[in-house]
Amino acid sequence: MDPSPLLLGDYLQPPTGPQLAATPYGNLDKADLAEFLTAWPDIHREALGRMKHRIHPSARIHPTALIGDDVIIGPAARVWEFTTIRDGSVIGTGASIGFNCEVTRAFVGDGAVLGHRIGINRTLVGAEAHLSANLTVAAISMWSPDMRTPEREIILRTPTGIYRCGTPQFGALIGDRVQTGNNISLGPGLAIGRNCRITSGVTLAARTIPAHHTVSNPHTTDVHVHRHRR
Predict the structure, then answer these.
(1) Residue 28 in 3-state DSSP?
(2) Separation CA 62–CA 78 (nearest Å)
(3) Beta bridge partners of 204
(4) Is the predicted pLDDT of residue 226 greater than 50, yes or no?
């Protein structure tokens, strides 16, 4: 059985800021994931050509942050200390990128929050999502013979079959209003539905999670407390 298309609109809303909404990113919700990943570099180049302000004047960026020349940052967004944003990333209206984060080829939706020490790569984050500290999204399969030049296609297991992303580099699709705990490892190849909760300590990859679900690590509560021997 061929898997169903994986429509981005089932996971996240397109940007609402007028400048970005007038670019191909404004039709984000109509795209299939694999088709978007293939077209992403062209979409971003076209968006850059249409932007009056690549970095909106109302955005607040800490002097220690490093921002790539092809990055788009929307109105009222904030980028905190020692953070790097690069390789055609988009930071939506009112989004906040915390202390010491690394954001590479990523789309971060309106009002989303990335806490401190977060690393995301080839990832789409929905509006009003909140990712807590020490979360990593990997984008390359460790089964590639040489991870410096990845070639193993990223796949997802879905209820209708194996979904092929058509690329050896894809991290995760994280839906609107997803919330996470800390110390979490995601990807490569993951789609998390809207309003999901991912508890601390979870490792998750190569699958889809339906909206309104919680993913937890069953061992985090198996803690033994005992008195020290004298």
Answers:
(1) helix
(2) 8
(3) 186
(4) no
